[in-house]
């Protein structure tokens, strides 16, 4: 397996390949990361890895009562993640390619990145100004009957969209055609559904595309049944994740 060492950006959410991630970067450890990324020529990929937090805080306590009323201030690249940061994160993440890294006048950054490749977290290094990680690339395997499963997931997802739109009394469709490549379908649907982080993480680290699609089909059917009984639900934008507090 191919391994790579990249800056590590832990979040309270899951990034999937092909999905867009906007970031508002204000903590010093991540500002240092962005300054380092800006040293990479624009013609080369500015890559970092995103992992979902299992146990810890996306924003480290910076003052008494911030963000936890009982928290004390913490400093350093591993602040908020305990003595062993590796245990604080889920084991599979996603490489992000930062298309836009814009520094504001106050030293914070506006970043727009896109997920590219799944990776397995092997080790975490907290000796520098920001976390870095040794990562093992995880190739996407199709699995059995991925094409047929993708068709079924798309049908179920369209029904899911319609029920969401009905609950909101508006349309969630942007007019764009949904993809038909099985792995792309699996990642798009995983990102678009209203699921908790552990469930999204389970979908990210599925052993192959077909397994992910089978899981999504079960989830879509269950979610559709729930939506029928709810009067309103928040809208979901299909190609973007939530903006991180960082």
Give an account of the 3D structure.
This protein is α+β, with helices and mostly antiparallel strands. Helix content is 31%, strand content 23%. It contains six helices and six strands. It has helices at 28-37, 85-88, 146-168, 182-192, 197-204, 209-228; strands at residues 3-11, 20-25, 47-52, 92-103, 109-125, 132-137. Strands 1-3-4-5-6 form a five-stranded mixed beta barrel. β5 (109-125) and β6 form a beta hairpin. Mean pLDDT is 85; it is low at 169-175 and 235-243.
Key terms:
246 residues; globular; alpha+beta; 6 strands
List SSEs in N-to-C order: EEHEHEEEHHHH
- Overall geometric form: globular
What's the rounded overall pLDDT mean?
Answer: 85
Q: Give the fraction of residues assigned to helices.
A: 25-40%
Helix segment tally: 6
Domain Lon N-terminal: 6-224
Organism: Streptomyces ruber
Pfam families: LON_substr_bdg
InterPro entries: Lon_prtase_N, Lon_prtase_N_sf, PUA-like_sf
